[in-house]
Every structure is written in structure tokens, then in C-alpha cells.
Model the fold of this input.
Amino acid sequence: MTIGTDVAVAAAWLRRGALVGIPTETVYGLAANALDPEAVLQIFAVKQRPAFDPLIVHVHHQDQLAELVTHVPDEARALMSHFWPGPLTLVLPKTTRVPDIVTSGLPSVAVRMPRHRLTLELLRALDFPLAAPSANPFGYVSPTTVAHVVDQLGDSVPYVLDGGPCAVGLESTIIGWEDGVPVLYRPGGLAVEDIEAVIGSVRSNVRQVLPVAPGMLESHYAPRKPLFRGDVKQLLAEHAERPVGVIAFRRRIEGVVCETLSERGDLIEAARNLFAAMRRLDAAEIECVLAEVFPDEGLGRAINDRLRRASFVPEAE
Ligand code: AMP
Ligand code: MG
Done:
């Protein structure tokens, strides 16, 4: 595997049907030609991702949608003009050109324009869009640096484009339309408040079960160590006997391994730091992770969503 910043090399691998690691502002992706089912199949194999979990298709220009989707609601156009390129994925009715393996057989396809110079350059060099989920084994925390990708998928990808650490650090916010009404499928790197400022209120369908939004699987984004959420002081008292790590918003807690995500209390900075902190705690000499509940606003909602999914739920007795 090679790490580099050569868009032409990355493009050559992709044209040959191989997988390439790509940087985006959300997380690193594992990309393949979205119109080539054989290439896309490899993504599922490498990630050990179940075939029922559909992929996001990445474009560099809105004109590419004509080939991929049959209808773009006015609200979707408005969101694209405000937030693309950016951490917003739109679920729209698909054309027959999009292979079923990309959408797990769903009649809709998820599309996004990533906000990263190298990846936009790569997409412009290709005459096909890229299907790309996060570049991590299925169910694990998403990679936000090139080192995270190499650690976990280094042996399975010929080339990873190094675009530096991800600026947003959380997966995209996913919006679709049901009977013409906008629906939130996954909170993410674009605050729902910002979306609602453009198209009005959005219904939340985040807890929708399979198969509509499999990214919403309960045990997703999960570190290997048990993670408990709640009032950290109380959790520390409950786990006083064992070495623990803490994920805190702005506080620094002495006497334990503490990952403070933003001392100045900035949820955007906290989101950017979350996944790397989860990985460091997974590698630290601790037995479990205690996480604060973040303010339920802006990117705090997406942070809480990921921590909730990562949290350890003891089996019912
Ligand atoms: P990621 O896990 O970042 O690769 O994002 C993929 C996620 O996008 C999936 O797990 C789904 O939650 C969502 N998604 C992709 N395609 C669709 C679709 N057609 N309908 C609803 N959700 C979708
Ligand atoms: Mg993922």
C-alpha cells in the first residue's frame, strides 16, 4: 500500500476497478467506481460490511445527478446550493444506472459532494462518481486521519490519498424525503438547525429500523472497550475500582486518562476530536470509557448520537 497526494495515481487505480482511500471533510472514505458492481463488491469484502448497508455516492458537480437520480425536490436543490460541497448527504430516487449493490437494493441512492480539495480534484479527473463508505472495518469508529486508515485497512488498499486530518471529523448528516416531507436519517457534520434554517422543520427518523437507514444500527461507531454515558462524577464513583478513561466536553478531570474534546466549549472542535479520542482510549491501559452527555444542539446532537451508539448496554438479565 502507498500513501501519497498524487490524484493521477489514485485515479488510475480507480479506473482499473481497485479501491482507494480518500480524504473528505467528514471522515476518510474507501472509494470505488460507483457504476461498477465488481469494484463496489470489494468495498463490502474489505470492510466486512453486510450487503444490506447501502453506500454514499460522491460527486463533484450537481450535473452528475442527472445520471444517478430520477427526481430532485426543490428543497434538495436549495440544500445543495447552500451546503454543497459539505457534510450533507441527500437520499433521492435512483436511476437504473446505479447498481443495486450500491443501494442494497433500495429504490433510492444517497449522494453527496465532499468538501476536500484533493478528493474534488480526483472526482473531476474521473468520468464516474465514487461510492465510498468510511474506511474502517464495519461497526468500528470511522477514521479521521490517514494513519487510522493504514492501521486498519493498510493491507487491503493499493493507495490512500493523504489529505491531512478531517476538518469536520463526523460522518455527514443524511436527509431524505418521504411523501414530500424532509426526514433526518442520521445527524452528522452539518447541524440540523442549519438545514432547518433553509427548508423549515425536518422530521427525525433517526431510530428507524432496518433496512431504511442501516447506518443507524445500534452497535455502530463502537470502540472495543465498554463505553458508559451519563453524569461523569456519578460514573466515576460507580467505576472507582477500575482504571477508566473519560471523554469530557470542556472539563479536565485529574487522576484518570481524560480526553477533553474542547476546552473552549466549541462543539465543532469537539466533533473534530471525538473519533481520534475514542481510538486513543481504545489503545490506553484502561478497562472502560466514561463519556459525558453533550449539549443537545448543533453538532452536539451528532456527538451524542455516536456516543449513544458506541455505548455499552448490559444484557438484560
Ligand atoms: P457510511 O456509514 O458513512 O458509509 O454511510 C452510509 C449510510 O448512509 C448507510 O449506513 C445509511 O444509513 C445511509 N444510506 C445510504 N444509502 C441510503 C438510502 N438509499 N436510504 C437511506 N439511507 C441510506
Ligand atoms: Mg461507516
In short: The domain at 227-310 is CATH 3.40.50.11030 (Rossmann fold). The chain has two domains: 2-204, 227-310.
